[in-house]
Amino acid sequence: MGEQSASRMEGDRYQHLYSWYVLLPLLDGNSPFETAFVEHPEAGAADDVTLHPRPGAAVTRQYIQVKWHVDHRALYTLEGLMEGVGRGRSLLQKLFAAWRVLRDQGPVEVWLVSNWPADPELGRYLQGRDCRLLEDFFAEAPTGGLKAARSRWLEHLGVEWDVLRAFCADLRLRLGFASIAELEERVDERMCMRGLRQGPEPRAIALDGIREWIEVGGEAKRLDRAKLQTFIRDRGLLEPETDTPGVGLWIHGWARRQWRGQPAVELDWTSHFDRDTRAVPTESVWREQLLPELREARRRLASRPTEALIDFRGKVPLSVSLAVGACFPEVAGDRFRVEQATRGETVLWSSDAKPTRRQLHGTERESVPDARDLLVVFQLTGDAGPDVERFLAGHPRRFRAVLVLEPEGGPHDGAVGSDGDAVAFAVLARERIRQARVRWRTATTHLIPYAPAGCCLFLGQRLNALGPVVAYERTAAGGYAPFLTLETG
């Protein structure tokens, strides 16, 4: 029973996450949909979330059934859609029954959304563009598996071909949809675009609201833009406003994202990065193409008002955050405001925040007396020790000394609690590196970051007068490889 209860809870969470995901666009003034329902009272099996157009909008009513599966032991098939649970109706029968009731009220789309994908026999008839069944599905003289399945569908539903064809034309199968973790990320992106807080706590507030609307029932389940705006305001979901003006710098690396407002400068580097394989551009691509683009971005932003912060947004590797900071140094008066996920919520960090009194613990050890390079491990949110030892074993005579920097109490995911902590660690790290260079008389510094992106950005701003700094990125195999060289003077 415990596992069944857990499955039901996961299913409810997935359904409510998807509901919030499709409700958020109602906040847009140009949304073609005017209202929505959660668990519509007249929609039968297609009731989980429904969308209803504005008068004159060129869209159709959508009635959506959301189904979650805890694992991927099976696929949706032409035959499987007719399988019932116990003596209950099949999924196909439930969707068909909902459609027969809803179509009398006008044009309608009945959607099935699920994390289970379609098998090849069903998938070959689904359009990736809009989740409709392809025209081939409606062939007058089907052959093979389709012929048998269509005959079984007609018998299973007890209808003639013209009725089945009309139903299938209104059916939408959005199969192989996101996992819970992926859906949470998509929800966060939509919340960010609309000026809302992101992370586990704001999402939990939104899902509690959906559960409450369902429990109260009646008109509470009917939602529109005004009602959502009131809910968002009353539950504290709006991102706090800031009086400090800013200009946007967006850099797309691992992925493209849309943030609130419009950037003054936008750089799309996604063709050079692959998150799955951890592939990054070569040093020559960085030096000959990306770094000049970053310098041009700084030139374009140089005319901003003196009091304006640079609102940096980007899904980029840690080394790119270091490079951005180095290109916009603190000594030149450049100040950043950046999104940072911390303690389960996305907040804004400022590079001019007052440093806290947090301390940075440094451990040094000599490696090769006649070497000329210094290895620095900047680990705040995790222990890079095992990977670093493997890295050192692969470069046995490379480094004069190794400096490991970490917060007092050791590295962990909550070690950097605020922008004040991040600034304090960046300032202390720069000074520790400078002292180590002098003490060990090294020429080049090799830096392995294991810290929040915002902290790396702030550190990059302070990497001045340290000579060449080679920044490393973690590889898909768990090691480290040099990514770019920063000339800090």
**Order of neighbouring strands in the sheet with most strands:** 5-4-3-2-1-6
Through-space gap between termini: 65 Å
Oligomeric state: single chain
Q: Tally of extended strands?
A: 17
Q: Which class do the helix and strand fractions yield?
A: alpha/beta
The parts where pLDDT drops under 50 for at least 5 residues are: none
Q: What can you tell me about this protein's structure?
A:
It holds the Pfam family SAVED. The termini are far apart. It contains 13 helices and 17 strands. A 6-stranded mixed beta sheet has the order 5-4-3-2-1-6. A 6-stranded mixed beta sheet has the order 12-14-13-15-16-17, sandwiched between helices. The model has no long low-confidence stretch (mean pLDDT 92). The longest helix has 22 residues, at 2-23. It is of the alpha/beta class and 489 residues long. It folds into 2 domains: 2-231, Trna Endonuclease, Chain: A, domain 1, CATH 3.40.1350; 246-487, no CATH class. 35% of the residues are buried. 35% of the residues lie in helices and 22% in strands.
